[in-house]
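User: I'm writing a tutorial on reading structure tokens. Could you give me a worked example: one chain, its sequence, then its tokens, then a sentence or two explaining what the tokens reveal?
Assistant: Sure. Here is the example chain.
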Amino acid sequence: MPWLKLLHIAALVIWCGALLYLPALLSHALQLRKDSGFAQGTPPMPRFFYNSIATPAALAAIASGTLLFLLNGLLGGWLIFKLVAVVLMVAAHGCFGWLILRLEMGIYKGVKAAMLLALLLAVAGILGVLGFVLAKPLDWS
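And here are its predicted structure tokens:
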């Protein structure tokens, strides 16, 4: 199953990178919208990036991680903590999608604060996953 672990790690790296890049895309889209003097739609890049890169990587990471768990019978205290960290990443991912929709609808109030909160959730999840995976050899059974 080395190919499955490789797929999981690659998808996780892409997803983590996307979660860190989405706030920059959203901030840029928000700034462009505020600077334009005419009625102009939100640039399509945040939605494209979210739908074409971030979401497929998240689904691949979660699916391959679930398969690794089921096929290898992994179980330990570290896994529960890692899954909590993954939930934080999923919450940040969902929040970014919600913010993209708000920008597309022309609702700008509170976008920056929510974007920072989502970024903090993403960073906490990413660091949590990394920390618990590296602590796994300590055998927290």
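What the tokens reveal: The two ends are 23 Å apart (CA to CA). Residues 89 and 119 are 9 Å apart (CA to CA).
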